């Protein structure tokens, strides 16, 4: 197949050729970024939390007015919740993964350090939180009974006086690279050292949005929170008993004190599903955009190719009269489309990086991996060949007699 006749024909139909190139370039640029965003969103949705999500159920409540006996009532609540049949562990805490509340602190390695080494969320454990969430301890130990302290609302969190902590593996790697974290010390905004006694494999923070709030940066402190400050009760049960345990837990809490409001009663699985609802919607929206773009691009190629075939009936007739076979006519149009698609893909790749740069600066998205470009190129090359096949076959099927009469 000689390229000179094809290039000569394209030069005589610059507008139509430019439209196809532009359409393919635009589709390539958008689809490469859209597929990348879809992959990022799916990875985020599937991110492991470290929690036994099918076994943990959560009741979120708040008090009405001021309760001077909130700490005592919290202890009664926990004793009653742990007695519910099917409950293997229960704890009160200030936040849960994918929940609405998030307590965050800057972590330093020295008391005089002015800039935090990292930002971490702080789970406050009243006892059994690690067991209730089903978090796996990767190193060290859990908290001893004499290490728990009571939170005093009048003194605030910094006066809680806890001296030990359990941290996530991500925090351990960031704070003490290449070393065992157990026995190491860090600080949370004051000069009181906190010793690491354990490392959990994974524990996501409730909310992760800004760049410095990485999902896996979590710390657990042994602080007993009254329900009117913490607000979350976490219970561990089996998946088949979740619904019944949740109902029993609400009854127990209402019986202990009717002057409270149950804000939420959900499984940890429901918290995750609701947290990522927008991400799932975005994935489907991007998929719809990709499909729409591919359909529009394919229809555009079919339309222009059909128009070209009609316009070049005489040219086809001459070639057929001179002995050109159907296969040669077919290859002619396929090669022509391949050249146009290649030019469009090259321009589209440049556009894809340009769009990615804008997304990186506006939404702190990561850089588009180069792998997505050849994938996008293969998709558009294939789409172009499939789309042009029908018009090309019609051109190749023009009988020599008809072609001769049309000359």
Task: Please report the number of helical segments.
Answer: 12
Could you tell me the number of beta strands?
13
**SSE pattern, N- to C-terminal:** HHEHEEEHEEEHEEEEEHEHHHHHH
Q: Which segments are poorly predicted (pLDDT under 50) over 5 or more consecutive residues? A: none
What is the radius of gyration?
32 Å
Classify the helix fraction into a percent range.
40-55%
What does the overall shape look like?
elongated
Q: Which strand-content bin applies to the residues?
A: 15-25%
Mean pLDDT across residues: 87
Structural notes for this entry:
- With 407 residues, the chain is α+β, with helices and mostly antiparallel strands.
- It folds into two domains: 2-47 and 276-403, no CATH class; 65-258, no CATH class.
- It is 50% helix and 15% strand.
- It is built from twelve helices and 13 strands.
- It has helices spanning 3-12, 14-45, 70-82, 129-133, 169-175, 242-256, 268-275, 277-311, 313-321, 326-363, 372-396, 400-406; strands at 56-63, 89-93, 104-107, 118-124, 137-140, 149-150, 164-168, 185-186, 194-200, 218-221, 223-224, 232-236, 260-267.
- The strands form three sheets. Strands 3, 4, 5, 7, 8, 9 and 10 form a seven-stranded mixed beta sheet that branches. Strands 2-12-1-13 form a four-stranded antiparallel beta sheet. Strands 6-11 form a two-stranded parallel ribbon.
- A hairpin with a 7-residue loop joins strand 8 and strand 9 (194-200).
- Helix 2 (14-45) runs antiparallel to helix 8, helix 3 packs antiparallel against helix 6 (242-256) and helix 10 (326-363) packs antiparallel against helix 11 (372-396).
- The mean pLDDT is 87.
- Keywords: Cell membrane, Membrane, Transmembrane, Transmembrane helix.
- Residues 289-400 form the ABC3 transporter permease C-terminal domain.
- This is ABC transporter permease.
- It is a multi-pass membrane protein.
- The chain crosses the membrane at residues 16-38, 282-309, 338-359, 371-390.
């Amino acid at each position: 197949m000689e390229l000179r006749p094809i290039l000569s024909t394209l030069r005589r139909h610059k507008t139509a050729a430019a439209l196809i190139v532009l359409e393919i370039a635009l589709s390539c640029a958008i689809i490469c970024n859209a597929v990348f965003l879809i992959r990022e969103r799916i990875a985020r949705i599937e991110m492991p939390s470290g929690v036994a999500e099918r076994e943990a159920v959560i009741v979120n409540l708040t008090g009405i007015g001021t309760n001077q006996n909130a700490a005592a009532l919290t202890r009664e609540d926990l004793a009653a919740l742990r007695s519910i049949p099917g409950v293997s562990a229960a704890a009160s805490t200030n936040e849960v993964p994918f929940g609405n509340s998030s307590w965050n602190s800057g972590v330093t390695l020295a008391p005089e350090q002015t800039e935090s080494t990292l930002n971490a969320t702080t789970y406050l454990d009243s006892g059994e939180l690690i067991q209730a969430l089903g978090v796996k301890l990767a190193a060290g130990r859990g908290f001893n009974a004499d290490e728990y302290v009571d939170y005093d609302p009048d003194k605030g969190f910094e006066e809680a006086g806890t001296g030990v902590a359990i941290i996530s593996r991500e925090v351990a790697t960031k704070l003490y690279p290449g070393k065992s974290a157990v026995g190491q010390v860090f600080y949370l905004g004051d000069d009181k050292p906190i010793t690491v006694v354990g490392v959990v494999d994974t524990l996501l923070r409730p909310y992760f949005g800004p760049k410095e709030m990485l999902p896996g940066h979590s710390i657990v402190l042994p602080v007993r929170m009254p329900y009117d400050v913490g607000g979350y009760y976490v219970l561990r049960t089996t998946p088949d008993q979740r619904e019944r345990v949740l109902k029993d837990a609400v009854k127990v809490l209402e019986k202990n004190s009717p002057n409270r409001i149950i804000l939420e009663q959900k499984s940890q699985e429901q918290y995750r599903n609701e947290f990522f609802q927008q991400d799932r919607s975005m994935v489907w929206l991007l998929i719809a955009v990709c499909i729409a773009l591919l359909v529009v691009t394919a229809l555009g190629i079919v339309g222009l190719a059909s128009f070209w075939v009609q316009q070049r009936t005489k040219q086809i007739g001459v070639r057929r009269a001179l002995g050109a076979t159907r296969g040669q006519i077919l290859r002619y149009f396929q090669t022509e489309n391949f050249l146009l698609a290649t030019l469009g893909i090259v321009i589209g790749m440049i556009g894809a990086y340009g769009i990615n740069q804008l997304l990186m600066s506006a939404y702190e998205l990561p850089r588009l991996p180069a792998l997505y470009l050849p994938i996008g190129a293969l998709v558009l090359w294939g789409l172009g060949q499939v789309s042009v096949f029908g018009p090309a076959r019609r051109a190749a099927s023009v009988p020599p007699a008809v072609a001769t009469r049309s000359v």
